[in-house]
């Protein structure tokens, strides 16, 4: 069924469309005579994210006419490495199709505007949910469901040779339907040098441009080591601890500071001994002592509780915006 949205209501008049308007990107812009920007829904660093209408899909009556557009405008104040990385990762991630990973459809440019076309999601991030949760934590059975879904997405990506490298609450999206999506894979890193071919500079770009969140990164990543699956395991274990305890395991310290201080996480009383051992193994600051795969972490955390959680897992105080 065709969407009942009139593009003219957003200032789009095909007969007057001769190029991009002056000024910063805003609702009413049309990219490549196809993507009508409807509303800004996010921003960060040098990029903006818009809810947009795919006018070609709308004309065809497709249900996927609403998309998300992440864009960046080239200019003197924009690091060209960011733009190169955005194009590079979009090409890789178009084939990363999984029910718990946000879809990346395409990457294109028009004039100075470089943009990524993605699946549009309705709901909120895990960080927003935690802020509104009692004591900023979630019930253990809800956490277990999140661990399963996020773990499934990460394991799939690792199987394709991709490490997320920036796993944090802001990059977990909870749809109003109850689905869990891992987002912002556009800064993901290839695992092995053999996979990179001509992309050896990806890690250097990420470190130099600050595309890693220190509060959730492993000590090895903070020391500049090449990414591996165990780095995502560490961030995943830290995220699990945060969801259960309402605080990060090493307080205000990042992992490197915790390593230097020989810090240890406080016990979480809401989990059993087997789950606690799994969390501690995932949080090992020495990567030689850490759980090596996400699948091993998920299996260890879930093994003590095998009952089905069903789809109605979201707490009553979750309300999508």
TrEMBL record:
Plastid keyword on record: no
Stated name of the protein? Protein kinase-like protein
Q: Where is the Protein kinase domain?
A: 35-302
Give one Pfam family, short name only: Pkinase
An annotated Gene Ontology molecular function: protein serine/threonine kinase activity
Q: Which GO terms describe its cellular component?
A: cytoplasm
User: Per its UniProt record, what InterPro entries does this chain match?
Assistant: Atg1-like, Kinase-like_dom_sf, Prot_kinase_dom, Ser/Thr_kinase_AS
Task: Name the CDD domains on file.
Answer: STKc_PknB_like (cd14014)
Q: Which PANTHER family does the protein's record reference?
A: SERINE/THREONINE-PROTEIN KINASE UNC-51-RELATED
Which UniProt keywords are given for this protein, alphabetically ordered? Answer: Kinase, Transferase
């Amino acid at each position: 069924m065709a969407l009942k949205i009139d593009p003219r209501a957003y200032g789009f008049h095909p007969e007057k469309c001769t190029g991009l308007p002056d000024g910063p990107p805003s609702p009413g812009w049309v990219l490549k005579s196809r993507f009508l920007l409807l509303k800004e829904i996010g921003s960060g660093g040098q990029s903006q994210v818009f809810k947009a209408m795919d006018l070609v899909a709308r004309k065809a009556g497709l249900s996927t006419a609403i998309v998300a557009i992440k864009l960046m405008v080239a200019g003197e104040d924009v690091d060209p490495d960011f733009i190169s990385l955005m194009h590079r990762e979009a090409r890789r991630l178009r084939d990363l199709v999984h029910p718990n990973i946000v879809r990346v459809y395409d990457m294109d440019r028009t004039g100075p505007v470089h943009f990524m076309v993605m699946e549009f999601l309705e709901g909120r991030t895990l960080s927003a949910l935690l802020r509104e949760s009692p004591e900023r934590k979630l019930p253990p059975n809800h956490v277990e469901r999140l661990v399963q879904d996020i773990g499934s997405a990460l394991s799939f990506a690792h199987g394709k040779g991709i490490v997320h490298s920036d796993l944090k609450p802001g990059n977990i999206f909870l749809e109003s339907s109850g689905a869990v999506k891992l987002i912002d894979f556009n800064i993901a890193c290839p695992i092995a040098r053999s996979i990179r071919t001509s992309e050896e500079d990806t890690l250097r770009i990420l470190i130099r441009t600050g595309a890693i969140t220190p509060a959730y990164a492993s000590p090895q990543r903070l020391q500049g080591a090449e990414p591996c699956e165990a780095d995502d395991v560490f961030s995943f274990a830290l995220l699990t601890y945060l969801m259960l305890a309402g605080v990060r395991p090493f307080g205000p310290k990042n992992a490197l500071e915790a390593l230097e201080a020989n810090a240890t996480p406080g016990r979480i009383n809401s989990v059993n001994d087997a789950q606690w051992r799994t969390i501690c193994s995932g949080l090992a600051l020495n990567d030689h002592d850490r759980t090596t795969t996400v699948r091993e972490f998920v299996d260890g955390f879930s093994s003590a509780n095998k009952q089905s959680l069903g789809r109605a897992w979201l707490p009553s105080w979750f309300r999508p915006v």
